[in-house]
Amino acid sequence: MAIPSRAPGFALVRVRRAGVCNTDLELQRGYYEFRGVPGHEFSGVDVDTGKRVVGEINLSCGECESCAAGLGRHCLNRSVLGIVKHPGAFAEYLTLPKANLLPIPDEEAVFVEPLAAACEILDQTPIAAGIEVAVLGDGKLGLLIAQTLCAHEADVTVYGHHEAKLEIASRAGARVCITDDPPAAKYPFVVESTGSAAGLGQAVRMTRPRGTVILKSTVHGELSLDTAPVIVNEITLVGSRCGRFGPAIELLRQRKVDVSGMISCRFPLAEAPAAFAEAARPGVLKVILTTD
């Protein structure tokens, strides 16, 4: 592709690393009716300054009520890197507003965007140190969530199906469990990060009365949910999406989250179709696209 032109106030970024996310796989299946260049997890170099950077993926209008309240990632007029009306990171170059860029310590910063999504949970919910939290799902995001909550000193249990993946959560201090029948009505907080349509119903069953389910999975298509237990048990459902990059960068800088063991393989950008196929295989963690 040609080097993209940029509007005033925008930076040109040379992409060095880009991660294939479950959302990218859902876009391929028709999520958001997306067409264009995908990719929103990246690290690269600001062409003008030579600095290594990551970038907030939401491009807000700066003029609406959400923007005035400091919630640009909820701007109704926003575009989103590689997801909504803005070409993404699966290319050699991308553009973003200069204000969106943040300096980074190393290549592991390709994990900043999903790690920020994990940190968003703590901005949205009153999870204190010592509180029991179940994380349902041992995929990429589930493991980042588990590590983030462990760093916050919550009492974390991760439910999944892969011993090797769960070992990453265990090293961070979480309890782990392989089962198809998790306990019912046990946890005050349950984070649903299975990436499956069945995950929401299972998360609701695991939540105690007046507890909270945090929804992290993006699944293309309609979900079926029996709302009776949500209403009878007065369960709060919290949708959770992007988060602030600052806390995520700090977790990586302080080595409170270990992402080195979460990279399954690397592919050159020219082999992106093979990378997508690998990322879609069950049990695979992060697949990285490289441009060097």
Q: How is the CATH topology of the largest domain named? A: Quinone Oxidoreductase, Chain A, domain 1
Unreliable spans: none
What's the main sheet like?
A: 7 strands, mixed
| CA(first)-CA(last) distance | 16 Å
Rg, Cα atoms, Å: 19 Å
Please provide the count of β strands. Answer: 16
Strand content: 25-35%
Order of SSEs = EHEEEHEEEEHEHEHEEHEHEHEHE
Percent helix, as a range, is: 25-40%
- Mean pLDDT across residues: 94
Structural class: alpha/beta
What top-tier CATH class of the largest domain fits best? Alpha Beta
What is the total number of structural domains? 2
Net shape: globular
Can you describe this structure in just a few lines?
This protein has 292 residues and is of the alpha/beta class.
List keywords for this structure.
alpha/beta, Rossmann fold, 16 strands, 292 residues, 2 domains, Quinone Oxidoreductase, Chain A, domain 1, seven-stranded mixed beta sheet, six-stranded parallel beta sheet, 9 helices
Topology:
Layout: E1 10-20, H1 22-28, E2 41-46, E3 52-55, E4 58-59, H2 65-68, E5 79-81, E6 85-86, E7 93-97, E8 101-103, H3 112-124, E9 132-136, H4 140-151, E10 155-160, H5 163-171, E11 175-178, E12 187-192, H6 199-206, E13 207-215, H7 228-232, E14 236-239, H8 245-253, E15 263-268, H9 272-279, E16 286-290
Parallel strand pairs: 9-10, 9-12, 10-11, 12-13, 13-14, 15-16
Antiparallel strand pairs: 1-2, 1-7, 1-16, 2-3, 3-8, 4-5
